[in-house]
Amino acid sequence: MKKLRLFTPGPCMIPExxxxxxxxxxxxxxxxxxxxxxxxxxxxxxxxMGTSGxxxxxxxxxxxxxxxxxxxxxxxxxxxxxxRAGKFGERWGKVCDAxxxxxxxxxxxxxLGFKSEGVAKMLDDNPDCDTVIVTHSETSTAAVSDVxxxxxxTRDRDMLLIxxxxxxxxxxxVKMDEWGIDILITGSQKALMLPPGLGFVGVNDRxxxxxxxxxxxxxxxxxxxxxxxxxxxxTPYTPNNVFVRGAQVVLHRLKEEGLENIWxxxxxxxxxxxxxxxxxxxxxxxKDPVDSVTAINVPDGIDEPKLRxxxxxxxxxxxxxxxxxxxxxxxxxxxxxxxxxFDALAAxxxxxxxxxxxxxxxxxxxxxxxxxxxxxxxxx
Length: 380
Known about the structure:
Layout: E1 5-6, H1 16-22, H2 32-49, E2 54-59, H3 62-73, E3 80-84, H4 87-98, E4 103-107, H5 116-125, E5 131-135, E6 137-138, E7 143-144, H6 147-156, E8 160-164, H7 176-179, E9 183-187, E10 198-203, H8 205-212, H9 223-230, H10 241-257, H11 259-279, E11 293-297, H12 304-313, E12 317-318, E13 320-321, E14 330-334, H13 341-357, H14 366-379
Parallel strand pairs: 1-12, 3-4, 3-5, 5-8, 8-9
Antiparallel strand pairs: 2-10, 6-7, 9-10, 11-14, 13-14
Helix pairs in contact: 1-10, 2-10, 5-6, 11-13, 11-14, 12-13, 13-14
């Protein structure tokens, strides 16, 4: 018997009760029942993001939500500072370029997170920038940026802050209103434990003022249309109402667990994985590691594609590889969503087995033992 366990940093494993909820007969979306469901989802999204502002549900991926945020706020006369140190930071610059939005790219080495001091220096050197776009948890490198400090900086300078929270919201601490984030984006297939297909965008009053001052060339991704429909807890275009039903179940489940408990669980699994990897003689890729996903350097002599193929085919554990210039050099293990301490141990155990299968020299169980010690100390 082989049971597949999914540890990619999106899509993530989906709880059984969520799958069952989405298996109910499909209903029409222009009904009072759907509007009540979307209202409940919206209110729970506000709780999850930590905001009293609008939380919009868009049928599309997290990239769809991010594009909507960027093109709706970056109308004529505005210029963005794009923080790029990974695949997804690069993507937001490509969105700006595709829509001819003026921007400056702030580049860092992959594996590093952005700090407020560096952002401040870039803004000093580019005084015509009035918006900062930053990825909180860079999924491609498993690095975290100090969004709380960056948000204070942008507030102090009366600038807009757009945050890619796609692998942050529901996994690591994010407090939209308290920190001063103007737009916060996430997607369904990450910590929200759903299939890919929904983007969620939190928007505060400062961001709406920017949206209202200009017009955008986009149609489907125009945030004004979603805000207008949200007045009646509806959507401007056909929604994926099946996934909205799943989101309702997920959000109630998350609220029952509690944000602090969620953050602690994810952090414990991440710390256990990092220390387990180091006990196996492996090294981490990110210099500023995030808790939602861990990137591990593949040791010399190990065939990375074969390693992942063995982990899935022989041991039933699916992880992710690297992207772009780190493809074949790192593996990535997700800790978001439907992952508990035993899942973390299973992933490390499969990694041990697959490494030993390729002749890697290590004491069997060393990584699992180190991880278990962390989990006992952190979760009890």
